[in-house]
Amino acid sequence: MRRITGTHVYSYVKCPRLAALDLHLPRAARRPATEWEEFAAKRGRDFETHYVQRLPVVQPQYPERDFAAGAAATLTLLQQGAEWIHQGVLMTEDRLGLTDLLRRLPGASQLGDHHYEVLDVKTSGRSRGDQILQVVFYTQLLAAVQGRLPEHGALILKDGREERFLIADYAAACDEVVGELRRLRDEMTKARPFAQMGCSGCYHDQRCFAELQAAGDLSLVQGMSHGARAILEAAGCRTVQDLATFHPDGARARGNLDATLVRRLRRAAQAYLLGKALVEERPRAERLENAAIVHLLTDAFAGRVLAIGVLSPGLASGAFTCAIPANAEDEWPALKGLLAPLPRAAALLHFGEALPRWYEEHAFSREADPATEARFVDLQRRLRGAAVYPRAVFGLADMVRFGLGRDPLRAGHAGAAALWAETPEGPARLRAKLEADLHDLAALKAQILDAAPTVLAPELTTHATE
């Protein structure tokens, strides 16, 4: 019987299907990690090593992957009252936990006049539910060993801050997840795949997408949710092909889904079958002909803006300029220098929250012009409302691939920017990626945002719904 681990708990919160595959398939069945994924993983390991070096830790010694021996060695350290235990092993009949840190606290337990609590080291800037549940899972294993449930668990975040939380607040949720994992361990098919934001970075992505496409799964349609899929399937609409011709007679026939939602999902299904984005009829906002497009490449781990690019005007023929700040102090003047030559009334188009969030964080301590922030216009929100796409879209790469039919990674993956920044060719790679992304954004603006609504010819509608 395969033991349930903290990683399975962490994975389940992201995607039950991911946890199910990890429970049933060998590691060799995963796609190989990319270079930039390996780089990110190494940063995480290095951060943990750096943090632990300042603590008087001991580590259980045991043969590699002999977790029974590791649990015995950990128990010995717990009984001896070691102040800090790094990489402790906690195990029951069907659960296994490899903890980052166990910290000794005063208070009696089966170990003696002391007990322990769990800390997990993370590279994120704020705590997340999946991280917390992983600590709760380890804490429940620890309680079985020491005969006492510690009151708190904690996460060590990337700034070195310790964020504590009450175990009791999350224990029921953890029990529910472990119960679901046990069911998935018995039957993998209880977790169906669902196309979602995290799929593109998952090492099982190709496996799941092949299954989704073969089944014509409704989650491939833009705007679909787990709940809407369940309701539609209960109403007899089980595939994308079914949805493209789904015209329910009344609220009961559509499972009480909102009629406008059903209409948009049906049109998205038609876009999927046609293989092209369909521009929607909508109130015409300003066309933003003179707007510039501003784009950032960032390093979330370091909290850095690595490169800033501007395309002005935001057209294929616009002038491209960029700056690559040498350090955090150079980021603000770099943006100001790029924006200074632009017309003061020109809108500043951007994609997503990266630019306004960064600008807001720095504006309090800088000489910020309030008028600059007022010029920001989020292309992501407008592009989502302007069209339905032939597949579910979540980020810029999806919109480029399915809205333009281009390879969004032709200049590399944005996630590799931090890796490039540490190489001699980094500035050239960052510049090339900025320019490619800016021209993709300009093309999306022209072909989606500024285009007339798509009217399907009768023959196309027939083709789409056959």
Structure commentary:
By secondary structure, the chain is α/β, with parallel strands linked by helices. β12 (304-312) and β13 form a beta hairpin. α10 packs across α18 (458-465). It has helices at residues 6-14, 16-24, 35-53, 67-80, 129-146, 171-186, 205-215, 226-234, 240-244, 259-274, 331-339, 354-363, 370-374, 379-386, 396-404, 417-420, 426-449, 458-465, and strands spanning 4-5, 57-58, 84-86, 89-91, 95-98, 101-109, 112-121, 152-156, 162-166, 278-279, 292-299, 304-312, 319-323, 348-350, 376-378, 387-388. Residues 462-466 have low confidence and may be disordered. The chain is globular, with a radius of gyration of 26 Å. It has a six-stranded mixed β-sheet with strand order 2-3-6-7-8-9. The chain has three domains: 4-190, Lambda Exonuclease, Chain A (Alpha-Beta Complex); 197-274; 292-449, no CATH class.
